[in-house]
Amino acid sequence: KPLNLSCVLNLGDYGLTCQWEQGTDSHLPTSVVLKCAGSRAQAVTGCTPQSGHSRCTVPRRLLQLYRQMEIWVSATNALGTAESEHLHIDPMDVAKLDPPTLQSIQSIPFQTDCIALAWDVARGTEHMELQCELRYRAPEDPAWALVTGIIGRAGSAQHCGFLFGTRYRFQMRCRRSSASASASAYWSEWSPGRDYTTHEKAPTGKLDAGWGAQPAGAGGRLEVQLRWKPPRQREANGRVLGYRVTLSTRRRGRDPATVCNTTHTQCNFSVPAGTRRVYLSAYNAAGESAPTEVILLERKGQPPAGLRAVPGGERSLWVHWEAPLAPVVAYVLEWQRLTAEPGHCSGCWQMERDGAATTALIRDGIEPFQPYNISLYPLYEGTVGVPIHTTAYSQQKAPSHAPKLHLKRISKSEAELCWEPLPVEMQNGFITSYTIFWANSIADVASATVSPSLSSFVIQGLKPSTLYKVHIMASTAAGGTNGTSLTLVTTMLDDSEIQFLFLTLGLVFVLLMVLLICFQKNERMKEQLWPSVPDPANSSLGKWVPAAVPQEPLQVLAAREPGPAAISTVTVLEGEEGKQPGKEPPALPAALPALPRPYVRQEGPGEPVQYARVAGAGYRGQRLLPEPAPRFYENLRGRGDGGGAGDWGFPEEPPATFPLLQGLRIGGAEELHE
């Protein structure tokens, strides 16, 4: 069975075009036709759709205009016939007319908020009774305003309630008025749009203004920062050309002194100290508004409490507060983006004239992921309250970046990290925490959560001489962002241990240096630890015994007091056997031949040689007998023939073992023989 049959009459050729939806496929060859019948005529086939289509047009010759007709769709296959619902319509009732044409739009001078419109109906519809509609809207309006009940044949109409100095777009459509009760009647398309701007009028209403004042230094002047909201379109009555600030109102036709005349919505000016009122007005091409009195009050009233802001949407904020105890006349609400320059948004404020209000919705200038500083000023009768502040985001997300970690100090078990706080423009929300992660080479991962107010952290419990990778994550309520990884290696020893080790080594080194210097410079210590004793056994004189010595007088030194003497030559002599001690030896010859100089160990120029006495086989540790004072041998006699050892005249029987160190060289070549 075909469904949803509908038809429309085209006034161009007066053909009736009908369309429908095909029923369920029967999987059999099916023929579809559109049938129509007049009030007194037999049913005829109006049209047959093309294969695969579900629409066709009934020609004008088969239609009866201004009379009821019956129209339906018939589908037939080998199993039978199915028909759609039957339509009973006057073809003219479903005629779709061409749209009218707007000719002129004018303001009515005496009724300043009304306009008059004139139009022409479509060709071929001049004889019809038409019902028309008018719609209009301003560019800032979200929807069209609709005016109904307009008689089309009149060709003109009036309508009121328009704003002054506002640009509107107008459109119009029509249909047959006799078909208004028919559900199947069609409106014409909307006419092409036509723009019109209503005439202007002087601005009305009061301006919302806020201010700040401070002394201007010397001269007794007061510096005032005044700002205000532009008037609403309904009160602007056209395009505002500028604003004027004066110190008084117009009196007796005299213009007051103007302190500021600007096209902006803020102005800075100075006034005499003690000024408590200024007057603000707006003007357009039609005139100037009544002045708005601005009272410069001191901020000393009671502040509100409990100010907070929550998201009202992606680009709006709901502000809540608690009303103060004193009655409030109005509230001034300000907001400023933290990342913007001061004064970036001169219109980012609004006045709540309901003193009992405790909530307000901020819509202007709010962007997601940006922090806003919000201030609330209560206005009392005769004074302004101290403001209260808060910060809010309309929407949050994870930070754009995480802080960069820096290593402050490290030991064998601890590492202190620090970082710079994230800039406000990169936070994208309130930072709720920082999380530090660290892991060694065997993937032992640990973490710690840090308050957002901190900028450093000490990792404890690390292993000595181990490599770690560390990174930080910054988090907001909407998510977190990881930073780059920092690689660090713990030390083998702590700083205190390293300092103790170096101190110990330093002390040992200093001690060694002191000992070395003492050993090098202190002669007494050198003599005590390693005395310089010559070995007489290595003397060449000790191994040489002359066969015969010519007689020569011996020059004997006078007796001298015992004392330290410098010894430079050592001569070892052995007594002959058979000589008896105590007997005088024969006299020496007058001149002895020069003896060969024995081997002498020289320690160095000017350096004294240790006196040594050798008796028997040893020289160290032996007990020395007291030495008798030296005496002269008077019986020394020498022979001139240079005989052997017996010719010297020594005692005939000296002790068998009496090797004796007998020679001394004092200063020069003198020698003493005993």
UniProtKB/TrEMBL annotation:
Cellular localisation: Membrane
Membrane-spanning segments: 500-519
GO molecular function, one term: cytokine receptor activity
Residue stretches making up the Fibronectin type-III domain: 203-302, 303-398, 399-494
Pfam families hit by this protein: fn3
Example of a GO cellular component annotation carried by this entry: plasma membrane
Its membrane topology: Single-pass type I membrane protein
Keyword set, alphabetical order: Disulfide bond, Glycoprotein, Membrane, Receptor, Repeat, Signal, Transmembrane, Transmembrane helix
Source taxon at top rank: Eukaryota
Keyword NADP annotated: no
InterPro entries: FN3_dom, FN3_sf, Hematopoietin_rcpt_Gp130_CS, Ig-like_fold, Type1_Cytokine_Rcpt_Type2
Predominant place of localization: membrane
Region (Disordered): 636-656
Family as reported in the entry's similarity comment: Belongs to the type I cytokine receptor family. Type 2 subfamily.
Protein name, entry field: CSF3R factor
Lineage: Eukaryota, Metazoa, Chordata, Craniata, Vertebrata
